[in-house]
Specification:
The complex is a heterodimer. Chain A is about 20% helix and about 35% strand. Chain A is α+β, with helices and mostly antiparallel strands. In chain A, a hairpin with a 2-residue loop joins strand 4 and strand 5. The longest helix of chain A has 10 residues. Chain B is built from 12 helices and 22 strands. Chain B has 2 domains: about 270 residues, TIM Barrel (Alpha-Beta Barrel); about 90 residues, Elongation Factor Tu (Ef-tu), domain 3 (Beta Barrel). In chain B, helix 2 runs parallel beside helix 10 and helix 3 packs parallel to helix 4. Chain B starts with 7 loop residues before the first helix and ends in a 7-residue tail after the last helix.
Chain lengths: ~70, ~450
């Protein structure tokens, strides 16, 4: 199954991932960084398993991320 | 020769304590170096709403308390940068940052977005206007005076324009929320942008990485070719760095800047090392003192410039826009043209106060008697010295190598884990660098505004 890895600490809250894949990403009211919806936290990394039809838009989110903290593994 | 003695009447009412040197603090090492070198205030960022959001060493909210504590003890002011473009989703974080700044006694926040100014004022937090607001005329300054006590003017103004705004403030008695006349701040040293005071979308347009969100990838700093698409012919241009200006250096006319009514002199470089901060703050501090006591001479200026050239620079544009536009003054190189470079040697293990001797573990390279050395640390700041004697295993030696534990006489205290470097003449290979965009995207460490 495909998954997304999110190195959240370095997020600068630019909102690009939310624009590309709003069903997976949202901006936290707490600290203005992006949250990966449906993810589990392992130390400082967030991981979510995604379906095949989510891969393309999340790859766009990864490509657009200015600080390169989103990885999509398919 | 003493320069501008006839301006004595202008300096008569000026004393060193009326002029503020504002230094960049991107790390605790740089903060300490700035204090030791004689700054009067520091600016720094926390979390992501500042123009160094990408920097690996950004401070956290916890660090803020420590920074304010250190600065209060040193009797210097603290400014928190909160000057990115802001979106609706940033409002909560922006308010939290202002609340934290207020709670811990930060002197002021530096803002460019009206939302941040407005909120900061609503909790009675002092506001300064950022260079990102591009204040270029008196009417704009007058508008911002309802929010701010200090306004930084755009780097693209001439000295005459700065002087005009300064005179108008006095003439029309423009006061900030504190009731005092609005003070003028000016960048005096450091990076310049190809765009107007940083309002650039090149990095966003090419890499979706916004300079105005603190994530500039500095592709303007690279070399470029001009190719005729029809023929494929490449135009020969002397300097391929067609978008990378040299760094601003005003130490040769700091008298004119002070006379123009500027009271806050800002040094760019939150991404710079502690030795950079130490050198730049120290030179400008000496220059201001020299001007005020009538000993600001050509010889001294030349010596300061030579010293400034030893640390990071892209070559200097002596005058910048302030003395009129000299087009084509581009950097002609990627990265630094510093005449000196530092080589990492190892870390401090101990300092023996009574005998003033420091012990270091050499992890790389060699150390010899006569070497110029630099020691940096969060409490030490940046300390320069010369090796007069080396002991390896209690035996005198002219040189020491990787793996050795050495003791050397050092008149000032250093702390465990402080880093030891030797300072050598720079070996340059200008002109070539990796232009692979993906690699560069993660490699960039150089900075721009605030």
């Amino acid at each position: 199954m495909a998954k997304i890895i999110h190195y959240r600490n370095k997020c600068i809250g630019c909102n690009s991932c939310v624009e590309q894949a709003p069903s997976r990403w949202s901006i936290s009211d707490e600290d203005g960084k992006s949250d990966l919806k449906g993810s589990i936290q392992k130390k400082e990394v967030y991981i979510a398993e995604i379906s095949v039809d989510e891969i393309e838009e999340n790859k766009r989110a990864a490509k657009d991320c200015p600080v390169s903290i989103i990885k999509v593994i398919d | 020769m003493t320069i501008n003695n006839n301006a004595a009447d202008k300096t008569a009412s000026r004393t060193r304590d009326k002029i503020e040197i504002m230094a960049p603090a991107g790390s605790f090492e740089s903060l300490r170096a700035a204090i030791n070198a004689g700054c009067n205030s520091v600016y720094f960022g926390i979390e992501q709403l500042n123009m160094r959001a990408r920097a690996a060493n950004n401070f956290s909210t916890e660090d803020l308390k420590e920074i304010v504590k250190i600065c209060k003890e040193a009797k210097i002011k603290t400014y928190l940068t909160l000057n990115t473009i802001m979106y609706d989703h940033d409002m909560n974080l922006m308010k939290k940052i202002c609340d934290v700044a207020k709670e811990h006694g930060v002197t002021a926040v530096i803002c460019s977005d009206v939302a941040a100014m407005s909120y900061a004022r609503s909790i009675n937090l002092e506001v300064h206007i950022s260079t990102q607001a591009n204040v270029s005329n008196f009417e704009t300054l007058k508008f911002y005076a309802s929010f701010a006590d200090v306004v930084v003017l755009a780097r693209e103004l001439t000295i005459k324009q700065v002087e005009y705004i300064s005179e108008k403030i006095k003439e029309e008695n423009i006061t900030g929320p504190s009731g005092q006349l609005v003070e003028i701040e000016l960048f005096v040293h450091g990076a310049l942008c190809v765009a107007v005071s940083g309002k650039c979308y090149m990095s966003l347009a090419t890499y979706n990485s916004s300079a105005n969100r603190g994530a500039c990838l500095q592709n303007c700093r690279r070399s470029y070719k001009v190719i005729d698409e029809e023929t494929g012919d490449e135009l020969r241009i002397d300097n391929k760095y067609i978008m990378s200006p040299k760094d601003l250096c005003t130490i040769g006319f700091i008298d004119k800047i002070i006379d123009a009514g500027v009271s806050v002199l800002k040094i760019e470089g939150r991404g710079r090392s502690p030795d950079y901060v130490d050198t730049v703050v120290s030179c400008y501090n000496q220059a201001i003192v020299a001007y005020l006591d009538g000993t600001y001479t050509k010889e001294k200026i030349d010596a300061w410039i030579k010293r400034l050239e030893t640390v990071f620079n892209r070559g200097f544009w002596h005058g910048g826009y302030y003395l009129g536009k000299e087009l084509g003054d581009w950097s002609a190189a990627y990265g630094s043209k510093a005449t000196k470079e530092k080589i990492y040697l190892g870390r401090a293990q101990n300092y023996f106060n009574k005998v003033q001797v420091a012990e270091f573990h050499l992890e790389a390279n060699t150390l010899s008697v006569g070497d110029d050395i630099l020691i940096t640390g969060p409490t030490t700041g940046a300390l320069n010295s010369k090796v007069t004697e080396i002991l390896v295993n209690d035996q005198k030696s002219d040189t020491a190598k990787k793996g050795d534990v050495v003791t050397i006489p050092l008149p000032e205290k250093v702390r465990a884990n402080d880093k030891l470097y030797k300072i050598v003449d720079a070996q340059r290979t200008d002109g070539q660098h990796n232009t692979n965009s993906e690699k560069s995207k993660t490699q960039v460490t150089e900075e721009k505004n605030e």
